[in-house]
Amino acid sequence: MIFKKLRNSFSQVPLLGWLLGAVIAVLLERYLGDGLADVLGLPKIPVLFGFLIMLKKPLLIPSALIFVLLIYALPISGVARLSAPFINRLVAWLFKFPTIISVVLHLGFLYAILHLWSDVSAYRVLTLKLTMIAIMVTLSLNVVNGYMGEFSCSHPGFMALGAYAASVFTVVLFAKDRLFGSAILPSALGPYMFPVALIIGGLVASLGALAIAIPSFRTRGDYLAIISLAFMFIVKSMIENLEVVGGPRGLSSQPDYASLPTVFLWTVACVWIINNFVRSTFGKALCAVRDDEMAANAMTVNTRQTKIVAFLFSAFWAGVAGGLFAHVLRYVNPGTFGLQKLAEVLAMVYFGGLNSVYGSIVGAVSLSMLGEALRPLEIFKWIIIPLLLILVMIYRPTGLIAFKEFDVKKLIEPKHEPEKEV
Amino acid sequence: MSRRKKYRMPLLHIDKMSHDFGGLRAVNNYHLTVESGQIRGLIGPNGAGKTTIFNLITGIYKPTEGDIYLENKKITGLEPHRIAHMGIGRTFQNLQLWRHMTVLEHVKMACYSKITYGLIGAFFGTPKRHREEEKIETKAHDLLKVVGVDHIADQIVINLPYGDQRRVEMARALAIEPKILFLDEPTAGMNPEELNQMMEIIRHVHRELGLAIFLIEHRLKMVMELCEIIQTLDFGRVIAEGTPEEIQNDPKVIDAYLGKEVVL
Q: What pLDDT score does B48 carry?
């Protein structure tokens, strides 16, 4: 009863309200966090909502919980609830202008939160960047495995192609490196050329995808899974044997272009474009092909072309994500893009939910965060995460949030008081 | 003027079409000429090759021998989506709907080949895309009204009762703007009331849209009432062709079909 009342009361908080609450929370942490951590006997501000500390030193569990409660839970919920009437009116007023203005405002808030939150430690920045890259890869794989209903195993291969293509581009042009010698162009130009590098990475990945698509989309079935798995291994061993790019030792000295705002903007672009695509009639054609290819073909859908285009499109974003990945770590080696990466990405897709942009975001964020949070458990981490996956597969076979449309307008619109139940 | 033209050139013309599945001749020397605006029926016992003929004409199989002409253009061997775009709409015997999509999405999907906004529109949501999507949405609603399921446009199709699913499939076939509509047992599994409604819909689209209709049916009541000319098929061969009265009284038909099982 109380639970339901709480839920009703909070359901009228618009997204902007929650964002505002989160801004307050991260500001609190920034200015009061150190002091509070001292008082509670914590060594420093808990970097990942106290998970790491709780698992490392069980004695500190109460302090960590209090910290999370005081810094995050109470301010966020309090501010969100109290500001709801005012924020609702503000959001409604903003809706009089083109939607893009509200969207940009929300994204601005979101970025501010991420920026302030991650400013506290370098570890947070890295986790955040890798999480956003995971969102891109998961989303791109969902286009093939979810929307199109085929099973592709080659996304780590596409990432590798993108990572190496983008790295070679930036390292040759803008960095001094033992493999490629000194920079060709002035390094001041570099950041402006970084999008070009990523797009080249994406296009190279698409080219690789074409090599898979031509033989495997003649028929349906397991062909794609097998061919794409082979492709992943071919890419890996090809790079291992290419001494030009460092072979198995990998390629380093990528310039530091992948800053937080850059990764954030690319992730937003990726989500926006993929969401546009899957909601258009062209994107829906993928679902039609998946559910009944013969009927799709009889209803004027050019099924083969649809599948190939979607596959190349998906590979493109995996390539872009790979390029970002290489520049975030500033080091890349072929060993990264193997079976383990594949398992990770597949888990994110199936955990989050097939056929859903929400699902991919949720899957990527929750599994990346979980992976980090459970790090102190070492080997047990690899028992807990698969167990969770199995549970999800049993109770929700298509994933947590499957077959749900990502409607930006609905997400940010003002919320009204729920109808009173009689 | 158009009337004259129609009579000079048949809408759909098939001559000496045969098809083998391995060593089995499933369709033998099949011929058909449909003028625009006609309603034609195809009957025959189970396994006679009726659906195979549909699949051959709509491009799912390629005939072993013979050619198919739609408005004097040869369509033999073209891909199904090309043939559909040229004007053959169809429904399926066992309802091939897309189980995760809504009613509205089904009808919109059949407008695929008429969309011109291209990939740029799909990726970036250009104004042109919004205009076109709105246009086909209006069209889809209109078609759903014709078949009487507009009130459930947002439902996932798999949750609907069987009769409604048949209607959705009909609306979907109409959305490709066909010149001729192929209906593969449109009333299979329907109760008498639904049957009458479906016949009303078929008459309506025939009258309002001036479509030619070619239908496979098991229920003789329906074929006899609707069709102008009926072909009877047995073991892949046309054994009789004529008006409903002629067919009903043809001894060969009675032997092959009516003699065993009278549904009238």
A: 87
Partners of B179 on chain A (C-beta within 8 Å) are none
B108 has a chain A CB within 8 A of its CB: yes
Average model confidence (pLDDT) across chain A: 89
Does A281 contact B84 at a Cβ distance shorter than 8 Å? Answer: no
Please state the domain count of chain B.
2
Do B81 and B12 share a structural domain? Answer: yes
Task: Express each pLDDT in A287-300 by its tens digit.
Answer: 999 999 999 999 99
- CB-based contact, B7 to chain A, within 8 Å: no
**Can you tell me the distance from the alpha carbon of B245 to that of B248, in angstroms, rounded to the nearest whole number?**
5
Supply the Cα-derived Rg of chain A in whole angstroms.
23
Q: From the CA of A353, how many Å to the nearest CA of chain B?
A: 14
Checking if the pLDDT of B154 tops 70, the result is yes
Furthest-apart CA atoms within chain B: distance in Å: 64
Residue B100 sits at the chain A interface (C-beta within 8 Å): yes
Average pLDDT in the B100-126 region?
92
In a domain, B263, yes or no: no
Are A297 and B81 within 8 A, CB to CB?
yes
Mean pLDDT of A103-118: 93
ipTM of the complex: 0.89
The answer to whether residue B234 is domain-embedded is: yes
Tokens standing for A169?
Answer: 């581009």
Chain A environment of B124 (Cβ under 8 Å): 273, 276
The CA-based diameter of chain A, rounded to the nearest angstrom, is 76
Establish, for the pair of chains A and B, how many residue pairs have beta carbons separated by less than 8 Å: 101
Q: Does B66 touch chain A (CB under 8 A)?
A: no
Q: Which residues of A touch B115 (CB under 8 A)?
A: 281-282
pLDDT at residue B182 in the model: 95
pLDDT at A277: 95
Which pLDDT score is estimated for B260?
54
Of B122, B155, B171, the residue that ends a domain is B171
**Same domain? B185 vs B160:** no
Closest CB from A273, A281, A302 relative to B123? A273
| Cβ pair B109:A285 closer than 8 A | yes
Question: Do residue B44 and residue B82 come from a single domain?
Answer: yes
Instruction: Please tell me whether residues B28 and B78 are part of one structural domain.
Output: yes
Contacts of range A48-56, beta carbons closer than 8 Å, 24 or more positions apart:
A48/A124, A48/A127, A48/A369, A48/A372, A48/A373, A49/A373, A51/A373, A51/A374, A52/A372, A52/A373, A52/A375, A52/A376, A55/A373, A55/A374, A55/A376, A55/A377, A56/A376
Looking at residue A180, its pLDDT comes to: 80
Contact criterion met (CB < 8 Å) for B176 and A299 = yes
